[in-house]
Amino acid sequence: xxxxxxxxxxxxxxxxxxxxxxxxxxxxxxxxxxxxxxxxxxxxxxxxxxxxxxxxxxxxxxxxxxxxxxxxxxxxxxxxxxxxxxxxxxxxxxxxxxxxxxxxxxxxxxxxxxxxxxxxxxxxxxxxxxxxxxxxxxxxxxxxxxxxxxxxxxxxxxxxxxxxxxxxxxxxxxxxxxxxxxxxxxxxxxxxxxxxxxxxxxxxxxxxxxxxxxxxxxxxxxxxxxxxxxxxxxxxxxxxx
Length: 241
Hints:
This protein is α+β, with helices and mostly antiparallel strands and 241 residues long. The protein has helices at residues 3-24, 119-154, 161-195, 211-240; strands at residues 50-54, 60-64, 67-76, 85-93, 96-104, 108-114, 201-204.
């Protein structure tokens, strides 16, 4: 077994173990704070978001002002003291009427601010655009490598150095894309936590990076080394013959 294969196999096992532990056990931050003025409630829309004007004929004109928003993931600060949002509805079917009750929980919300206060969200928009551009470049690069890989396989060239190289680079790019998205998501979450205070909820990490990117990338890197070993064995057999 060559050195790269040992390294890639070890990384794959470690990553798989971490993902299993992460999915089985829920980790969250235990620290949060509140002030007496913090409150989450239903109120009439503030004038900076929406204004109403009564005309001479008695009609009311509603104007929605421009806003900027950003989606965040949230979790309740204290479930024991939090009221629950319950949905109760009747559903009719062939067997009659059934009463269905569900508890509705907020996990992902959109925070909006007036356009005049958009400086905070501008940073997030710039980071999001840069992240999307980088991800697009990497994806296009991967598609080009996959096209070359398929073309080589269709020619019957499987146990060759070039195929191994295509697989290894594709795996490295997938793994790098996962790590890049994970780092960006973590940085954005920390930025939000230091600039936003929500009543009854705190902001949690998005964790939107696809775990399969890393696992697939490492698997491709392992396969690339197996193909390289197969090529060496094939060359040895040809020399023996």
